[in-house]
Structures are given as structure tokens and as C-alpha cells.
């Protein structure tokens, strides 16, 4: 368990560093996937899509809506 936990966090941080998207909760998300309860393990890869991915999409939608209300602002400045 301790080896899988450390490898999950290290891999998540290495991928985020390589893509220049370092965000510490990403390491916590991978840690929860390893040490989480049986319910989380039963989700399998769906865990990455539903709570983590869906939450990120909802936050992006809110940010786009709120930050683009005034005509003087444009969010995001650019899309990669």
C-alpha cells in the first residue's frame, strides 16, 4: 500500500510537471484513488471521470460564465 501510494503521487506530480500544469490537489486525487475505500476502488477509472473530471468541468463552466459577463473581460486570454 505504501509503495502504490507513493508511486501514484509521484507519477501524478511528474506528469503535471511535464505538462506545466502543477496543481497539488492532483496528487491528492491520485492518493485517494489508491488508499480510498472499497466504493472508490469499485469505481475504477470512473473515479477519475466522475468526481475529479466532472468537478473540474463544472468549475470551468462557472469560471467561463462569470468572467465573461462584462464585455470588457475575456476569459481565458488564450486556449492552448
UniProtKB/TrEMBL annotation:
Instruction: Keyword check for Oxidoreductase, yes or no.
Output: no
Give start and end of each HPP transmembrane region domain: 2-76
What is a single Pfam family found in this protein's UniProt entry?
TM_HPP
Q: Which InterPro entries match?
A: HPP, TM_HPP
| TM spans (from-to) | 43-66
State the UniProt keywords alphabetically: Membrane, Transmembrane, Transmembrane helix
Q: What is this protein called?
A: HPP transmembrane region domain-containing protein
Query: Which lineage is the organism of this entry classified under, starting from the top rank?
Result: Bacteria, Pseudomonadati, Thermodesulfobacteriota, Desulfobulbia, Desulfobulbales
Amino acid at each position: 500500500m505504501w509503495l502504490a501510494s507513493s508511486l501514484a503521487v509521484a507519477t501524478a506530480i511528474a506528469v503535471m510537471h511535464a505538462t506545466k500544469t502543477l496543481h497539488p490537489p492532483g496528487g491528492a486525487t491520485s492518493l485517494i484513488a489508491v488508499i480510498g475505500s472499497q466504493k472508490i476502488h469499485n469505481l475504477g477509472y470512473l473515479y477519475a471521470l466522475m468526481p475529479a473530471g466532472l468537478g473540474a468541468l463544472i468549475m470551468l463552466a462557472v469560471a467561463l460564465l462569470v468572467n465573461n459577463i462584462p464585455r470588457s473581460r475575456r476569459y481565458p486570454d488564450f486556449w492552448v
